[in-house]
Amino acid sequence: MMNKRKKCIVLPILAVVMSIVLLLISADRFFGINERMLRKLFGISDFCHSADGYPLTVHFIDVGQGDSIFIDCGGKYILIDTGEFSSEKTVCRYLKKYGVKKIDLFIATHTDSDHTGDIISAADSFEIENVMVSSFDMDNEEKTYGQKMFYDTLREHEINIIRADIGEYVFGDAVLRVLSPIKDYGDSNENSVVVRLLYRETSFLFMGDAGKRAETDILAADEYVHSDVLKTGHHGSKTSTTQKFYDEVSPKYAVISAGRYNKYLPDRDVLERIDAKLLRTDKNGDIIIASDGKDISYFCQK
Q1: Do 126 and 149 form a contact (C-beta atoms < 8 A)?
Q2: What is the rounded average pLDDT of the residues 222-250?
Q3: pLDDT class of 85 with cuts at 50, 70, 90
Q4: Residue 43: its pLDDT value, please?
Q5: pTM, whole model, 2 decimals?
Q6: Is 125:151 a contact under the CB 8 Å cutoff?
Q7: Lowest mean pLDDT among 27-31, 131-135, 160-164, 232-236
C-alpha cells in the first residue's frame, strides 16, 4: 500500500506528465508536432511504426475480405484501395496512427466494394491529391450504385483523376509502372489497374483482382514482371496467378489479402503453386514489407 508521503510525491508528478502530454497534443496545431513525434518522444509504439527508418515501406492492411495497401516512399504516400465501407475503423485509424494527413496518390484498382467501398471515409479523413482509375472503369456508362457513389465522392472533394494509361510515373525515389488493363475485358476484376513499383534494386507487383486474361496479355506485351514481392490477384482465387505468370514474376515474397472465414479463398491450388515466403492477412493480420533499396524485410502483426 502506498503511504501518504509517496502519494504526495507521485500525484504531482502524474499531473505534470499529463499536462505535458496535453500540451504536446495541442502543439500539433501550433508547432507541427504530430502524433508520430509524440509517440517517439514517450517510447509509445504501434505496429504501423514497426519498420520506421526504412526509406520504403509497404503496408498490407488487414481489412478482412478486401484489399487496402498503404505505401510510404520517403514521405510520399500512395494508397491502393480502401477495403469495404466497414473497413473505415481499420484503414483510417491505421493511417492516422501513422501520421498521414495527405495522400499523394490513391489507386483504385477497380470499383468493386471490397476495394473502394470506403472511399467516402478516406476522402473525408485525408487530403487526396490524385486518384488513378482505369479508363474502362471511368468510361463505363452503366455504373452500379457503388460506382456512382465513388465518382460522386471524387467530384464532391474536387479530387484530380488520372487515367491509368500504360506507362511509367515517377513517384519520389520510386518508379511506378502501370501494366494493365491493356484492353477492355468487359469484367470489373480483369480490368483492375495492375502496377509494379520499382525502388532501386527492389520491386513490388500489385495485381488487384486481375485474372488469367490480364496476366496473359501482360506477358504477351513483353512487360517485365519479375518482382521481389507479389500481391497475388483476386485474394488468391483460382481465377488468378497462373503457373506461367507466377514463374515469370518469381517472387521472394507473396502476399494474399483475404478474410478469415472465407471457405473458398485463397484457393488450395494457388497455395500449392506458391513456393515463395507466403504472408496472409487472414493469418498474419497487418503486414509490413520494407525495403532499404537493396534488401527486403517483413513484419507481421501476429
Answers
A1: no
A2: 97
A3: confident
A4: 47
A5: 0.86
A6: no
A7: 27-31
**How far is C-alpha 99 from the geometric centre of its chain's CA atoms?**
15
Type of residue at 88: E
CA-to-CA distance for 245 and 248, rounded, in angstroms? Answer: 5
Helices 35-42 and 88-98: angle between axes, nearest 10 degrees:
70
Query: In this predicted structure, what is the pLDDT of residue 86?
Result: 74
Cell of 294: 537493396
